Amino acid sequence: MPKRALSTDLPYPVTDAVKRLGRNLRTARVRRNLSQDALAAKIGVNRRVIADAENGKLGTAIGIYVALLWAMNLESQVGTIADPERGDPEGSALARTEERRNPAAALRSPPRQQLLAPVGRRRFGENDALGARGHAPG
């Protein structure tokens, strides 16, 4: 079965976003006075991979894009992509609708604050059937 080019399969906003990301990465590299060769050596790939990413080639792996961001100290921005707590009003509205229709849905996925809440530390042996040394008391 012949391979089809990715650019013909994806909607324009997708290809445009990847090309924009490539241009942004190139701008970041040039501002840091880094060559494609130097950046490629830093992340352990061929210079051609850097050129493909900067040109927005759709077949470039997402790991390459994240590695480029890391190499230029920009990787912290990756965590904000598709963050459900930031800028997803449609998803939030759908989640609230599902919780109203099905209260059990709220029990399946606790709020993010609960997931990130610190867990208390327990000393070894405390509240165990076995004592502190692993032996039954007495």
Describe the structure.
There is one protein chain. The chain is mainly alpha-helical and 138 residues long. The protein folds into 2 domains: 6-80, 434 Repressor (Amino-terminal Domain); 82-112, no CATH class. The protein contains 8 helices and no strands. Helix 3 (36-43) packs across helix 4.
Quick recap of the structure?
The chain has 138 residues and is an all-alpha fold. It has helices spanning 6-9, 12-31, 36-43, 47-54, 62-71, 89-101, 103-108, 112-116.
Question: What attributes does this structure have?
Answer:
2 domains; 138 residues; 54% helix; mainly alpha
CATH level-3 fold name of the largest domain? 434 Repressor (Amino-terminal Domain)
Q: Note the main sheet.
A: none
Helix content: 40-55%
Shape: elongated
- Please indicate the count of domains: 2
CATH class of the largest domain, anyone?
A: Mainly Alpha
CATH architecture of the largest domain: Orthogonal Bundle
Alpha-beta content class: mainly alpha
Q: How many E-type strands?
A: 0
Q: Would you identify the CATH H-level superfamily of the largest domain?
A: lambda repressor-like DNA-binding domains
Query: Unreliable segments (pLDDT under 50, ≥5 consecutive)?
Result: 121-135
Helix/strand order: HHHHHHHH
- Beta-sheet strand percentage? under 5%
**Cα-atom Rg, whole angstroms?**
24 Å
Mean pLDDT across every amino acid position: 79
Number of helices: 8
What is the straight-line distance between the termini? 73 Å
